[in-house]
Amino acid sequence: LKETSPRNQRCKFLRSTPYALPSIFPFQLAWELHSHIQSAQSMRSEMKTTVCQHMQQFATTPKTSEEKLRMALLITAIALIILAVDQALAELGGEKAPFSRSFLLETGVVVLGMLLPAMFLRLSRGAARTQKGDVPLASKAQGKFEKSDAASRVREAVASAAREGDEASAEQLLQEAIEAKIPLDPMPFNTLILSLARRGNREKAGMFLKKMRSSGTAPNAVSYNILMDACVKADDAAGAEVWLDRMIKDGVTPNEVSFSTVIHGRAKQGQTKLAEEWLTKMLAMDIEPSITSYNSLIYACGRAGDISGAEKWFGAAVDRGTSPRVTSFSAVVDACAKAGDVHRAEAWMEKMIAQAGVEPNVISFSAMIDACAKIGDAHRAKHWHQRMVTHGVKPNAHSFSTVINACTKSGDLNAAWEQFEQMESAGIIGDVVVYSGLVDACGMAGELELAQNAFNRMKARGVRPNVVAYASLARPFAHKGDWQEVERLAAEMEASSLKSNEYFLYAQLLSYACAKPRETERAEMLFRKEVACGLHPNAHVVTALGRALGRGRAANVLRELGLRSPDTSEREMR
């Protein structure tokens, strides 16, 4: 057929075949024979592919010695079958290739092409299982990696678990590493200790520090500092001192952070003398304090109104060559403000402004304004607020609140409203303290419409009133005996899920007492209800009850409820 003329279109499909068929065969017979030959070749190819896949699967699956022997025999048997079938198919297809070329060469190439990928897959799957944690991470790292690599993998895994808040997994990883005797540094232990401490589990965090020591890993200063910081944040200064003492006993040298933490813990509680003792111990160990340690002492003195103490520690920091920060100056100004010494506060503000490298911030100016507000000097308060703006410091709700407070204390309601309007014009949304102060100032001045206006504007700005704001608004209506309006405010407050307190109860009882005629039944019913709900009346509340019921009836109600009469030395609220 190879010699057949191209004009014979019926046999054109046979030109691609390597087989020489007699030209006398009918076309149909030639076509059937050609199909059988192609099927035989396809079967031969599929058999080789299938055998290759099965052999690759066997090679990549872990086997015991007995299973490996059976696998080898099976492969040998399959190879012999391939030999026989391959020869038969080759003869049927018209091939007369020698045995070595038709089988050994093809089989050798197939086996080589199979074994190399199989070995690669086996190794890559084993590494993937180790990374995914199909077996304990510590055991895999110990068996297949160098010890340093294993420690690094444990550190990364513990950090990842701690970030996700999964302390249980972090603990298990550390336990496996300890059992596998992987040499660890303090970092994975510190990571877990920090995670536990942040979640308030200080006891367990301390347990892991002890476990770190028992496992042969020496804790460092960071380990103890984490526990000390957790104690201070929990307001347990004594606990922080216990860990510092243990740190020294364990032979770990404390650093500046260690002492600053316990100093801050005692200063935070106002225990200045104990804080000073720790600073003295710090200097005795040749550890140079930072400005943070001195600031803690300055703040402690400031909270106590001890200007001399604040100035003393500020001077001590400068004498040691420590550069004071804006927080240092602000703490001294705040100390002056709490003591009501405006002139001294102004002197420190001027010193801060003149100090190179120190820029006063909104906290500094607010402390200065607060000093003016404490003595009711609205003029000076407005002066320092304006100076803050001129200095390029943007005011906030707190600074405006302080100025408004100074204006209300001086009785200048117009100035207070002026500052309030400036605040809103500047796009600053005041907090509930600002609005409550303004409502209270309007109420004290008897300006009910202005008080109601300020209260409504607070709600319109999205600021949720608290019980103090409601009490401030209710008090002027109570003095007028408008108990209906006070009850309306009480219902509104209850609808907002706000619970009444002594301030609002006083206003409501006062409204019943000032009503004409007095609403004695309503007053008694309300008082019994609030006491039943767990409210503990103070002297002002009991005084208002006496005005509403009469002293005799009020005393009887108190006895029935098991309450004592108030101390007569306490003055009545206005």
Care to describe what's here?
- Helix 1 packs antiparallel against helix 2, helix 18 packs antiparallel against helix 19 (397-409) and helix 22 runs antiparallel to helix 23 (467-479).
- The protein is built from 28 helices and no strands.
- It has helices spanning 27-60, 65-92, 99-132, 137-144, 147-163, 167-179, 186-198, 202-214, 221-233, 237-249, 256-268, 272-284, 291-303, 307-319, 326-339, 342-354, 362-374, 378-390, 397-409, 413-425, 432-444, 448-460, 467-479, 483-495, 502-514, 520-532, 539-549, 551-560.
- It is mainly alpha-helical and 574 residues long.
What is the compact description of this entry?
With about 575 residues, the protein is mainly α.
List the helices and strands and how they pair.
Blueprint lengths: L26 H34 L4 H28 L6 H34 L4 H8 L2 H17 L3 H13 L6 H13 L3 H13 L6 H13 L3 H13 L6 H13 L3 H13 L6 H13 L3 H13 L6 H14 L2 H13 L7 H13 L3 H13 L6 H13 L3 H13 L6 H13 L3 H13 L6 H13 L3 H13 L6 H13 L5 H13 L6 H11 L1 H10 L14
Helix pairs in contact: 1-2, 1-3, 2-3, 4-5, 5-6, 5-7, 6-7, 7-8, 7-9, 8-9, 9-10, 9-11, 10-11, 11-12, 11-13, 12-13, 13-14, 13-15, 14-15, 15-16, 15-17, 16-17, 17-18, 17-19, 18-19, 19-20, 19-21, 21-22, 21-23, 22-23, 23-24, 23-25, 24-25, 25-26, 25-27, 27-28
